[in-house]
Amino acid sequence: MNIAKVGTLFLQPIPRYINAVSIKVFEYMLCGLPVVASNFPELRKVVKEADCGILVDPTNVDEITDAILYLLEHPEEAKRMGENGRRAVEENYNWEQMEEKLLKLYEGLETCQQS
Asked: Rounded to 5 degrees, what angle do the CA atoms 42, 6, 24 make?
């Protein structure tokens, strides 16, 4: 990843992946790489919220190619997206933030069981 200019994640449209977010996308973001990823609901939430990349139809080679070329031909935009992704991981997608959410979830489940 040290020499990469773009992080790519092309999960295919099968039920197992449609609502998945691979750890790989967060690794790319943490490295400051702009992301080109499958335009699936959960990936869309992460990439759009962070404004860290371009979403594509993973079965459309032209769309994939255009997105990668765009980022390579627009290095300032790619840098901006990469910085956005890194900031999103540092501020939101990290263990401290996820731990807090997970503990609240467990507390909610505990309350439901006691009722």
From this structure: 40
Residue 111 makes CB contacts below 8 A (sequence gap 6+) with none
pLDDT tens track, the chain, 115 positions: 889 999 999 988 888 888 888 889 999 999 999 999 999 999 999 999 999 999 999 999 999 999 999 999 999 999 999 999 999 999 988 777 667 767 777 777 767 666 6
Task: Spell out the CATH class of 7-89.
Answer: alpha beta
Which conformational region is residue 51 in: left (phi greater than 0), alpha (psi within -120 to 50 degrees), or beta? Answer: left
Residue 83: Cβ-neighbour burial (10 angstroms; 0-12, 13-18, 19+): middle
Instruction: Find the largest Cα–Cα distance for the chain.
Output: 58
Cα separation, 80 vs 87, in Å, equals: 11
Cα–Cα dist 18/85, whole Å = 21
Which of 91, 108, 85 is closest to 29 using CA atoms?
85
Q: How far is residue 81's CA from residue 32's CA, in Å, rounded to a whole number? A: 8
